[in-house]
């Protein structure tokens, strides 16, 4: 089997590894293909490739062979590799290059045992950031089955707008972030605000406060504005919130590229990892509406 391209997109927990055309041909084959054993190396999680993987790989192969993409690697598929164990746990990618109006469509899937951990959303944000590096892209769209609430949640958390359901599918879109700089005096639209909902260990509140203090400093040092952490006040509670903003999704992605690389970021995460103060968390991206702040189109 031909080796895959080495360049990968990185996120705090994942590597998104481009799928070569040769591997896509294998993935596009039937489950009972003669070389099925060779197509499932030990580094692939149980349940991979998914049925959606085979459909996406087939589309990728057809598009590449027809020469529809100027850069098949850029507009193709990516294996989602969980860095903690090196396993391929799913895939994500484009359904082809942008159309005449600059719209590109994405799709994704994870094996069942890795769902519910925010990994698909993490991969989706990274893929969208890759799309925005191409100036011809004006909009990113995606569809989910109407009954797939979890997949719809992934897109909402990545900042997509929900356009409702039709013909059994729920439709989403994400417009290109506006390029105008944000005033240094006050962040305003089109910034994005990340709301992080934590479930914490109440016995490790002191460690969580140290973790929170360090991340407030880092966000403010790297182009964002942290609005603070909100911790339990009265009564027993294991819930906490954090809110911080960046001028755009692209600015946020520049910040995210420092995870796992910058020594200060690694040290801050070590507080969480060693104390186990965070049991789980979920991110939601929102567009703030501030006092006396005109919204989009005004």
Describe the structure.
The chain is of the alpha+beta class and 298 residues long. The chain folds into two domains: 167 residues, Gcn5-related N-acetyltransferase (GNAT) (Aminopeptidase); 95 residues, 2-Layer Sandwich (Alpha-Beta Plaits), CATH 3.30.70. It contains eight helices and twelve strands. The strands form two sheets. It has an eight-stranded mixed sheet. The protein is globular and about 60 Å long. The N terminus is likely disordered.
What overall form do the CA principal axes indicate? Answer: globular
What Rg, in angstroms, do the CA atoms define?
A: 20 Å
What is the residue-mean pLDDT, rounded to a whole number?
83
| Number of alpha- plus pi-helical segments | 8
**Which spans of ≥5 residues are poorly predicted at pLDDT below 50?**
1-6, 32-38, 180-189
- Named CATH architecture of the largest domain: 3-Layer(aba) Sandwich
Order of strands, widest sheet? 1-2-3-4-5-6-8-7
In which range does the helix fraction lie? 25-40%
Alpha-beta classification: alpha+beta
CATH homology group of the largest domain: Gcn5-related N-acetyltransferase (GNAT)
Amino- and carboxy-terminal Cα gap: 55 Å
Under CATH, the topology of the largest domain can be stated as: Aminopeptidase
In CATH's first tier, which class of the largest domain applies? Alpha Beta
SSE order? EEHHHEEEHEHEEEHEEHHE
Measured by DSSP, the beta-strand proportion falls in 25-35%
Largest sheet: 8 strands, mixed
Q: Let me know the number of strands.
A: 12
How many discrete domains?
Answer: 2
